[in-house]
């Protein structure tokens, strides 16, 4: 049995992970939240809930007494200075927490993705606090892009909402950087991520610092081939590096669905920036996650992109 605290536990990915942890029947789980969780976003009845002040290290230290593993799902966009996670790290060290996972759950690199600059700030802070001695064991859970997003607009997980990507299976179209069709994307279902995290919590060895989780490692061309097998012919908009680097996205279509944490007045600019950022960063290898965490569990069978997409789009118009 491991005592686990989940910060930002009302978020979509957090709730997927909490369900996987609860399903093991082995752990004592406490969700930390800024507010009392209402019935609409309450977790399993067996999961404890505790209201905390992320601006108060003393309050967080008290809440983390006796906790073995702290998983953070704190929303990065809502905390530009990342004070919440820095305070969580300080409190975890003060209270004797053994393991910590910051709010990651995406690409291994953040280049060209300013909306994820907070991840770099926390990575640097973790290195800083461990510079002279290892005060806190941690890993960066990095599953790449959620495979679930290729089923947009259909929901394929219990909590995770659909989001658009540069691969639009609904309308059979995609955006690809000309000459870089071999750029790599790691694609992992949120369910598989959750199962790996549940296993990692029980793993008795040291966590790898870069917790790469590689469900599928595919090139843009691979994804298009699977897409055409599942959905038929795709129209492909080719874009050029020089345009992207200049901030120009010259395509016949663009993303329209934005993350719930983004305000309406920020949406249009962020959607354009997300497309440009994902395309540029993929060319530079930011989405080519390692398998350093997933290879600790060689018996685990990941959901393949082909099988997932066949099921997701079966019978869809």
From TrEMBL:
One Pfam family cited in the UniProt record for this chain: NmrA
InterPro entries: NAD(P)-bd_dom_sf (IPR036291), NmrA-like (IPR008030), NmrA/Isoflavone_reductase-like (IPR051609)
Keyword Endoplasmic reticulum: no
GO MF annotations in UniProt: oxidoreductase activity
Record domain NmrA-like: where: 3-225
Keywords: NADP, Oxidoreductase
Chain segments annotated as transmembrane: none
Family that this chain belongs to: Belongs to the NmrA-type oxidoreductase family. Isoflavone reductase subfamily.
Name of the protein this chain belongs to: NmrA-like domain-containing protein
Organism: Thyridium curvatum
Lineage summary: Eukaryota, Fungi, Dikarya, Ascomycota, Pezizomycotina
